[in-house]
């Protein structure tokens, strides 16, 4: 499991803060993760052992997708605390002047963040993030 945490997971999650995860992408990431966990435990698919049992054996509480979503929320909080003249904050708050194309609106990174914030508020899960000075941590519920 040390190899997974130090080599495989960072490679798998590189740049994940900027991803817009669709359900198809989440399934693929979970499949890669479970494939590695099965191989590391030397369990084949023919043994019909459920993913939850493999997670318990490997002591993996959170999935990689959950870790990606957490990293996205942390990045969002980091950018929101930036001063207004910084480019990441400008890009986050940018609204294009032209009209969007016809059809169903594309799911954006920001809409995914807002959805996760709403789910977090409904579950009353406090989110831990650093204050502006990043010296003391504050436990707050995102508003």
Explain this structure:
The protein is mainly α. Helices cover 54% and strands 6% of the residues. A two-stranded antiparallel sheet has the order 1-2. Strand 1 and strand 2 form a beta hairpin. Helix 2 (23-41) packs across helix 3 (51-58). The longest helix is centred in the N-terminal third of the chain and has 19 residues, at 23-41.
Topology, pairings included?
Blueprint: H1 2-12, H2 23-41, H3 51-58, H4 64-80, H5 87-93, H6 109-123, E1 127-130, E2 137-140
Helix and strand run:
HHHHHHEE
Question: The biggest beta sheet, please?
Answer: 2 strands, antiparallel
Separation of the first and last Cα atoms: 37 Å
Q: What structural class should be given to the helix and strand makeup?
A: mainly alpha
Oligomer: single chain
Q: What low-confidence regions span 5 or more consecutive residues with pLDDT below 50?
A: 124-143
Number of strands: 2
- The overall pLDDT, averaged over residues, is 82
Strand content: 5-15%
- The 3D shape can be described as elongated
Radius of gyration over alpha carbons?
18 Å
Strand order of the largest sheet: 1-2
Number of helices, counting only DSSP H or I runs of 4 residues or more: 6
Helix residue percentage: 40-55%
Number of domains: 2
Protein name: Endonuclease-reverse transcriptase
